[in-house]
Write a structure and sequence with these properties.
The chain is of the alpha/beta class. The chain has three domains: about 160 residues, Thiamin diphosphate (ThDP)-binding fold, Pyr/PP domains (Rossmann fold), CATH 3.40.50.970; about 160 residues, TPP-binding domain (Rossmann fold, 3-Layer(aba) Sandwich); about 180 residues, Thiamin diphosphate (ThDP)-binding fold, Pyr/PP domains (Rossmann fold). About 40% of the residues lie in helices and about 15% in strands. The protein has a six-stranded parallel β-sheet, sandwiched between helices. A six-stranded parallel β-sheet has the order 13-12-14-15-17-16, with helices on both faces. α14 packs parallel to α21. The longest helix has 21 residues. Its EC number is 2.2.1.9. It is an enzyme of class 2 (transferase). It catalyses: isochorismate + 2-oxoglutarate + H(+) = 5-enolpyruvoyl-6-hydroxy-2-succinyl-cyclohex-3-ene-1-carboxylate + CO2.
């Protein structure tokens, strides 16, 4: 039987520019699957594990900048999407989730693969809809069309995941003699509003700006934007104030940018850093990795804190927000240069940049040490990644090392990390989604726990020849040795660090990847000479390290920074 209202979903998606769908196999979802597979303008991929499928779809949407459709059958399959949906919600990545369901009269009747799917994702989606079951009346067909348009517009306009639950009655497979067609459907376009600020508001902001000499900009997680990069560069050049950027801000190539803040804002250096506190703080982006930066700004509150964002979400994670300015950041900084005069203090800018340079010099010296650790290995790999690569960092230590070491210089790389929820799940899958979306090299830096947790990311039939995975295997959650609380407990190894004996070789064999393994700097450098070369399949480089030594070396690095500031 042809369920035309289901097939029309694919047509509306295609008309809105949705080009990709990730599907997990199932029977109740057959009509949805066939609708997207048979639509000539949509590329589909089948991923068996729903948890991996959702992160792969998220990785694709992150690269494409538009929603990717995500389709599964009824029951627990829908629940397996939840971690990726929460991550997409906090990263503001568009997704269109289509879950097949039993008709409502069968809910809570102990029927197979039947759970309560309506609003299943709660507050982690921008909107949730239930499709009509019966569509004999013309109003019901109009309702179906309206729902799909409304959902897609919400996902694109507000940037995030939306959910349509689709109850479907049997029969849902077309007969062999039935022809599927995709007639023209109604498309409701949502034209975005280009917001700007009135002249009176600019004048008000200008007066506040003139009242401060210690002014600073802090950049949280953002996708790379060339217009924003240009606007920030011109702004910084005219305003003469420090720009402090986490590695996930994707603004690491800004001239004079401060990126070593996690190292020099160490609480043990508070007496040195007290004069760095801004009285006017401007923030943009989402989460910050650096705990030291967050604590410093919370403990040394600015008089004025402006957050610049086009999002509706109020981000007050530093606890001292005074003004939420709802405007696209590139518009704000581009217009600010024209409307507001006056520079910051050169001596204040110099203080931040001097602290940044002290760390940079000490770090370069420290990396020459002969004791092998994952910190040293991480630096060695990061320095040779390909130009214009998409760099993905898993939680927990991988992204922290990246933020401390800094992005590769002059390589035009883009950086991604699942810092919306900061979980270790889905790191492999997000990188796989990125690799499936483009030909650019995709490089994943991950620890062993995150890697093994998400091995099903590779369980499909698609070639990932542009993917390179570097696994830092210290055989457990090494981060817990570096946190004061768990490292002091007698249960550290078994209940926090979770020691494990696995290596990545069998995973590489299972999925036909090239595999390399090393445990010293010489072998690592030898492998790195060819590791990023073009190949017919993905590659895994596993770097074996000792957790106790890693902890010891990282502590030595922190001491080296303290000594550099005492000198």
């Amino acid at each position: 039987m042809i369920l035309q209202h289901i097939y029309d979903i694919a047509s509306v998606c295609a008309s809105h520019g949705i080009q990709s769908a990730i599907i997990s196999p199932g029977s109740r979802s057959a009509a949805l699957t066939l609708a997207f597979v048979r639509h000539p303008e949509i590329e589909t991929k089948i991923i068996p594990d729903e948890r991996s499928a959702a992160f792969i779809a998220m990785g694709m949407a992150q690269q494409q900048g538009k929603p990717v459709a995500l389709i599964c059958t009824s029951g627990s399959a829908a629940y397996n999407y939840a971690p990726a949906i929460a991550e997409a919600f906090y990263q503001e990545i568009p997704l269109l989730i289509l879950t097949a369901d039993r008709p409502p009269e069968w809910i809570n009747q102990y029927d197979g693969q039947t759970i309560q799917q309506s609003n299943i994702y709660g507050k982690h989606v921008l909107a949730s809809f239930d499709f009509p079951v019966e569509v004999n009346h013309e109003d019901a067909k109009w309702h179906c069309n309206r729902i799909v348009n409304e959902a897609i517009n919400a996902s694109i306009g507000r940037k995030g995941p939306v959910h349509i639950n689709v109850p479907i009655r049997e029969p849902f497979y077309p007969d062999s003699n039935e022809l599927v067609n995709f007639p023209e459907v109604r498309v409701i376009k949502n034209t975005p509003f280009q917001q700007n600020i009135h002249l009176a508001q600019w004048m008000s902001l200008g007066k506040k700006w003139q009242n401060h000499t210690r002014k600073a900009i802090v950049l949280g997680q953002m996708e790379y934007s060339k217009p924003l990069h240009t606007a920030l560069y011109r702004f910084a050049e005219k305003a003469g104030i420090p720009i402090i950027a986490d590695v996930i801000s994707n603004q690491h190539d800004l001239p004079g940018v401060v990126f070593n803040q996690d190292s020099f804002l160490n609480p043990h250096l508070n007496t040195n850093n007290i004069e760095l506190a801004p009285t006017l703080l401007i923030t943009l982006g989402k989460s910050l990795i650096s705990k030291n930066l967050k604590l410093y700004l919370r403990n040394n509150p600015p008089t004025e804190h402006w957050h610049i964002s086009s999002s509706e979400k109020l981000n007050d994670s530093l606890q001292h927000l005074t003004e939420l300015i709802k405007i696209d950041p590139e518009i704000f900084f581009g217009e600010f240069v024209q409307h507001v005069g006056g520079k910051g203090s050169f001596s204040y800018l110099n203080q931040w940049q001097q602290a940044n340079q002290i760390v940079e010099t000490a770090k370069a010296s420290f990396m020459k040490m002969k004791k092998f650790s994952e910190f040293q290995a991480f630096n060695a790999v990061l320095n040779v990644v390909p130009n214009k690569a998409k760099l993905h960092f898993a939680n927990s230590m991988a992204i922290r090392y990246a933020n401390i070491i800094g992005a590769p210089k002059n390589k035009q790389v883009e950086i991604f990390a699942n810092r919306g929820t900061s979980g270790i799940d889905g790191s492999n899958s997000t990188a796989v989604g990125a690799a499936l979306s483009q030909k650019s090299p995709v490089v994943l830096f991950t620890g062993d726990m995150a890697f093994f947790y998400d091995r099903n990311a590779f369980w499909h039939n698609y070639n990932l020849k542009n993917l390179r995975v570097i696994v830092f295997n210290n055989h457990g959650g090494g981060i817990f040795r570096m946190i004061d609380g768990p490292k002091r407990q007698p249960e550290l190894k078994e209940y926090f660090e979770t020691k494990q004996k696995l290596n990545a070789e069998n995973t590489a064999k299972d999925f036909g990847f090239e595999y390399y393994c090393c445990s010293n700097l010489k072998d690592l450098k030898d492998y790195l000479e060819t590791f990023f070369n073009i190949s017919k399949s993905a590659k895994i480089l596993e770097i074996q390290t000792n957790s106790e030594r890693n902890t010891e070396v990282f502590a030595e690095y922190k001491r080296a920074i303290l000594e550099a500031f005492k000198a």
